[in-house]
Design a protein that fits this description.
The chain has helices at about 10-30, 60-70, 90-100, 110-120, 135-150, 165-175, 195-200, 210-215, 235-245, 250-255, 275-280, 285-305; strands spanning about 45-50, 75-80, 105, 125, 155-160, 180-185, 205-210, 220-225, 260-265. By secondary structure, it is of the alpha/beta class. The strands form 2 sheets. A 5-stranded parallel sheet has the order 7-6-5-8-9. The chain has a 4-stranded parallel sheet with strand order 2-1-3-4, sandwiched between helices. The protein binds phosphoric acid mono(formamide)ester and norvaline (NVA). Phosphoric acid mono(formamide)ester (CP) binds next to helix 2.
Length: about 300
């Protein structure tokens, strides 16, 4: 039994195996209606709990559809409607859910909650986003990049804006997949004080570059995210927006990247804030491919968790 909690927990062989399987399953579905079963129904007789303590469109729908396509049965649970929202502990919740289901996907706030769920669960647990990370998203992003441009190894990925949960998972992926990563955002919103030291220790080709134009030069992949995340205090909005404005991705900035550079955003976006609509809908944007690939890659992640 294997959990999928962080990209840094997996070997590159396992990560590539997941991407390969996702690609195969995606190709095998061409032309099929969304509700058709995948051949062999690999999750047949399996029940998957999808627990959400935060809102979601993509994660919620793609996991639900993915479980069904694999022949399994999803149960969507909202944290607020569970006893979890009334103070039942996560450790008790984990032990109870493990008696009913074969796999748990959790979207929550603190990463400690996810780790606690994984510690007490006797079935695999998948990270569907915490305040600290979003590994399913980055697996879908790497799948998307490699579909369009081949191996991401050695490529230059530039992240603009907030050093948030999605960025953290890019950072972990940079170590595993061997791409170079540049963070271009305000000092106040750097994800960790000792990021450069961490990168050095892990042998990640990582740089902070606060000049957006020099940061984006030679970029193969340009990514950003909303300026206010679900876990942020809305009162911080004004301060954060002022800090982040210089890091907006617009056509002028995007034109400085490689001509073939892809634009990514995990969505949901606040159009014309972190990125302008002309970039989001432009020829280099792959935002909806990323969203689609959430489905394929998460199906492969679920199979990987249950295969070990
Ligand atoms: N990208 C992503 O995880 O979207 P949702 O919040 O809609 O699930
Ligand atoms: N950083 C965003 C990602 C949403 C998918 C958030 O945590 O709200």
């Amino acid at each position: 039994m294997m959990n999928f909690l962080n990209i840094s927990d997996l070997s590159i062989q396992d990560l590539n195996g997941i991407l390969e399987q996702a690609k195969m399953m995606k190709n095998a579905r061409v032309g099929l209606p969304k509700g058709a079963y995948d051949e062999g129904q690999p999750l047949s007789q399996h029940i998957v709990a999808l627990v959400f303590e935060k809102p979601s469109t993509r994660t919620r729908t793609s996991f639900d559809v993915g479980v069904r396509q694999l022949g399994g049965q999803p149960i969507l649970l909202s944290g607020a409607e569970m006893q979890l929202g009334q103070g039942e502990t996560i450790s008790d919740t984990a032990r109870v859910l493990s008696r009913y289901v074969d796999l748990i996907m959790l979207r929550t706030f603190e990463c400690q909650t996810l780790y606690e769920m994984a510690k007490y669960s006797t079935v695999p647990v998948i990270n569907g986003l915490t305040n600290e990370s979003h590994p399913c998203q980055i697996m879908a992003d790497i799948m998307t990049f490699e579909e369009k441009r081949g191996s991401i190894q050695g490529k230059k990925v530039v992240w603009f804006g907030d050093g948030n949960n999605v960025f953290n998972s890019f950072f972990q992926a940079a170590e595993k997949f061997g791409f170079s990563l540049v963070f271009s955002g305000p000092k106040e919103l750097e994800p960790a004080k000792d990021l450069c030291r961490q990168a050095k220790k892990l042998d990640i080709d990582f740089k902070i570059d606060r000049d957006p134009i020099s940061a984006i030069t030679d970029a193969d992949l340009v990514a950003t995210d909303t300026w206010l995340s679900m876990h942020d205090n809305p009162e911080a909005k004004k301060i954060k927006y002022n800090q982040l404005k210089p890091f907006q991705i617009n056509e002028e900035l995007m034109s400085r990247a490689n001509e073939e550079a892809l634009f990514m955003h995990c969505l949901p976006a606040h159009r014309d804030e972190e990125a302008t609509s002309d970039v989001m809908d432009g020829k280099n944007s792959v935002i909806f491919d990323e969203a689609e690939n959430r489905l394929h890659v998460q199906k492969a992640i679920m199979r990987w968790c249950l295969s070990k």
